[in-house]
Amino acid sequence: MSHENTVFQKAFNSVNVENWRESCHHGYKRKEFYWERDQQMDKLPDRFVINLEDDSDDSNESESELERESNDVAVELE
Predict the structure, then answer these.
(1) Where is this chain compositionally biased, Acidic residues type (predicted)?
(2) HEC-encoded secondary structure of the chain
């Protein structure tokens, strides 16, 4: 038997029922964690806008909507 097979066999034989149960439980917990995170990601919008202009109180009130939109950056999410 090769050295790798011997090491693998020793490691495999050292796993008991409790080790296996804990490993499975850990796997299920991780699966649930990522399942929840995936559900939250699905609720996010596919696009959001970041206004690059200063949003101070002394802004020009007569500014047109088109001028304001020209200062926005749209980010598409995949």
Answers:
(1) 52-64
(2) CCHHHHHHHHHHHCCCHHHHHHHHHHHHHHHHHHHHHHHHHHCCCCEEEEECCCCCCCCCCCCCHHHHHCCEEEEECC
Reported residue count of the chain is 78
**C-alpha to C-alpha distance for 50 and 71, rounded to whole angstroms:** 9
Chain segment 43-71, per-residue pLDDT in tens: 887 777 787 876 665 555 555 555 555 55
Q: Find all residues with CB under 8 Å of 71, minimum gap 6, and list them.
A: 51, 52, 53
- Separation of alpha carbons 42 and 44, rounded Å: 6
Pairing of strands 47-51, 72-76: antiparallel
